[in-house]
Amino acid sequence: MNISVLGTGSFGTSLAMVLTDNKHDVKMYGRNEAVVEEINESHTNLHYLKDVDLPAALRATSDLTAAVDHADLLVIAVPVKAVRGLTKDIHRILLEKNKKVLIVHVAKGLELDSYLRVSEVIEQETTPETVEDICVLSGPSHAEEVALKSPTTVSTASLHNKGVTTIQDVFMSKYFRVYVNEDLVGVEIGGALKNIIALAVGTLHGLQFGDNAKAAIITRGLQEIARLGTKMGADPLTFLGLTGMGDLIVTATSRHSRNFRCGIMLAEGLSLTEAEARMGMVVEGVNTTRAAYELSESHGVEMPITKVLHQYLFDDISKDEAFYKLMMREKTSETIGLKELLNEQYRDWSNQ
Ligand SMILES: NC(=O)C1=CN([C@@H]2O[C@H](COP(=O)(O)OP(=O)(O)OC[C@H]3O[C@@H](n4cnc5c(N)ncnc54)[C@H](O)[C@@H]3O)[C@@H](O)[C@H]2O)C=CC1
Ligand SMILES: O=C(CO)COP(=O)(O)O
């Protein structure tokens, strides 16, 4: 298949390697000329993937029209905040060329201000005349390990359920296994919100908290991800799968995670701006903490970890105050909130 990967960052590059390995004709599009030249001339992308040699067949361009013209499948691999602008440009080119494509995105977050999931942003900026289906590919998949062909499993879901088998076919290989999932909302929400919890656990790690505390934040974090996700229409069981618990584990415990590492830098005393600049790659959990906190307030869903992290990141409360607020919250039962939501949702289903 002719495929263009839009975004020459860490994940775009590693996915382009998987697709090239699978014998597809792959072009990468990047806006940074120096990175494009490095991919074409040296077959490396060292800022994003250290010690990795790219296949010689993998070519990059900084010409978006050429990349869109090349492809039947577009893989959007840029940060959430860049998706809307890039999609507008893609749509304009598709209209000019009278062309229709399949889109899959891999961005993990919610758009700031609109609070939309990424597939909703893409849907708003395209039409059924130009785009066959809008899919997501998500799950525990650090770019650094994918590039080393380390066994990885992910899931794909889509708006119209038309493109998922194509996505499964083109990406699947002996080291990259793809499952189909019917729950687009759950897959996107799990991938977005786990970054908040990874940021929180990274901060705990940097502050030398113990394993008990980390396990508590991961577990209670999954609970609040499921609470908001279910309220937004996800199937609660999705949060037990690859794009929920799976991605939460890999992000909240790994030295590869940008969110986890950003948390460590905050604990070491760097400001948010300094930590993001030192990372040099996107830390999606920062904007998603803002979006999820505001969504939780408007939906009336309790998300104590997100709320306290929001205060820690943006209102400058101290770490002691943050932990006091979490530990000394009003006494409650372990399953309250989620159980009520589940009952509500099962009532809705049984009435259908
Ligand atoms: N790095 C990873 O292991 C994984 C990342 N993701 C998600 O993939 C998305 C991208 O992440 P990374 O590749 O890690 O980010 P990155 O920071 O490594 O790279 C982002 C790339 O997007 C480019 N970019 C930004 N705005 C652009 C625009 N308007 N037009 C064209 N290119 C633009 C940047 O120049 C850069 O090359 C994020 O939403 C992330 O959560 C998902 C799974 C794994
Ligand atoms: O989503 C990821 C792995 O599945 C990558 O997480 P980070 O953005 O925190 O590196």
Provide a concise account of the structure shown:
The protein has 16 helices and 8 strands. By secondary structure, the chain is α/β, with parallel strands linked by helices.
Give your account of this protein's structure.
There is one protein chain. The protein has 352 residues and is of the alpha/beta class. The protein has 2 domains: 2-182, NAD(P)-binding Rossmann-like Domain (Rossmann fold, 3-Layer(aba) Sandwich), CATH 3.40.50.720; 190-347, N-(1-d-carboxylethyl)-l-norvaline Dehydrogenase, domain 2. 54% of the residues lie in helices and 12% in strands. It is built from 16 helices and 8 strands. It has helices at 10-21, 33-41, 64-70, 80-97, 118-125, 143-146, 164-171, 184-206, 211-231, 242-252, 258-267, 272-279, 284-299, 304-315, 319-327, 338-351; strands at residues 2-6, 25-29, 59-61, 73-76, 101-105, 131-138, 152-158, 176-180. An 8-stranded mixed sheet has the order 3-2-1-4-5-6-7-8, with helices on both faces. α5 (118-125) links the parallel β5 and β6 (131-138). α13 (284-299) crosses α14. The longest helix is centred in the middle third of the chain and has 23 residues, at 184-206. It is globular, with a radius of gyration of 20 Å. The structure holds 1,4-dihydronicotinamide adenine dinucleotide and 1,3-dihydroxyacetonephosphate (13P).
